[in-house]
Write a structure and sequence with these properties.
It holds the Pfam family GSHPx. This protein is of the alpha+beta class. The chain has helices spanning about 40-50, 75-85, 105-115, 125-135, 170-180, and strands at about 10, 15-20, 25-30, 55-65, 150-155, 160-165.
């Protein structure tokens, strides 16, 4: 059975980035979008990156255009947007699919380790549930990524320890990352 370190993703220049590069680190893998209501989470991710990078945190940003076409740009345009608007310093990968037949094998693995457990509580959670129910009444039954800014947290040993939906508070992720470091 493969583990986290057996997977790789492509950098925007086509270079293959192996997850082995992050061995011994705490890693957040996140599918992102530039035109989404959750896009301001880039700011929170960058804050965590600056706070914890020297202690062993890595963030792997995978832009994805599968959710309402909210990441229409090229890899270069996406990178420019993120660095200019949010001053992101963590590595951004080539735009890719996280669901379906063309999904990154890494995402197939991540979803097999941490399935969908719901959006939690609050107005954003209710909004997401209502919106997705219209698209697919059985959306809660699959491990698929439901929307932009779904985050997986991998511990220093390569175990996928948590999945955070975009509706969950960023301070919950921050707390877990601090514990794992």
């Amino acid at each position: 059975m493969a583990d986290f370190y057996d997977y790789s993703v492509l950098a925007p220049d086509g270079e293959e980035i192996s997850m082995k590069k992050y061995e011994g680190k705490v890693v957040i893998i996140v599918n992102t979008a530039t035109g989404c209501g959750f896009t301001p989470q880039y700011k929170d991710l960058e804050t965590m990156y600056e706070k914890y990078h020297d202690k062993g945190l890595e963030i792997v940003d995978v832009p994805c255009n599968q959710f309402a076409g909210q990441t229409p740009g090229t890899d270069e345009e996406i990178h420019e947007f993120c660095t200019l608007k949010y001053n992101t310093q963590f590595p951004q990968m080539k735009k890719a699919d996280v669901n379906g037949e063309n999904q990154l094998p890494l995402y197939e693995y991540l979803k097999s380790q941490q399935g969908f457990k719901g959006f939690g509580k609050g107005p954003k959670a209710l909004m997401m549930n209502a919106m997705l129910k219209k698209i697919d009444s059985n959306f809660q039954q699959t491990p698929d990524i439901k929307w932009n800014f779904t985050k997986f947290v991998v511990d220093r040993s390569g175990k996928v320890v948590a999945r955070f939906e975009p509706t969950q508070k960023m301070d919950e992720i921050d707390k877990l990352v601090a514990e794992l470091l």
